[in-house]
Amino acid sequence: MVAREDYDQVIDEYHRLQEANRPLPDYTKPWIATALLARKQPRQALTVLASIPIPPVQQDDDRFSTEFYALLESDQYHQAGEHLAQRIPLGKPLSGGFLSNNLTIVG
What we know:
Helix content is 52%, strand content 7%. By secondary structure, the chain is mainly alpha-helical. A three-stranded antiparallel sheet has the order 1-2-3, with no helix packed on it. A hairpin with a 5-residue loop joins strand 2 (97-99) and strand 3. It is globular. 21% of the residues are buried.
């Protein structure tokens, strides 16, 4: 459903399963968060992602970027920078520069 951009159906199914107290497999949660983010619900997306017990350094790229953008969309800029810093060591070359100590790209 996410691949077809049927975000409303994903969100409706998520709420239906929540109301029925049905557990969700962790692998489905990034898709749910993507749908929530697409529908301008970044704080709910962060809540869903927070329920997955995987540290940022071990997250796949889709999950990591969804959480990063959800932090940005919910005006949590410092947390977004910290999230990025957990994944990219300071001084590691990035496109156009490197990540400095104050979590900005320099170069």
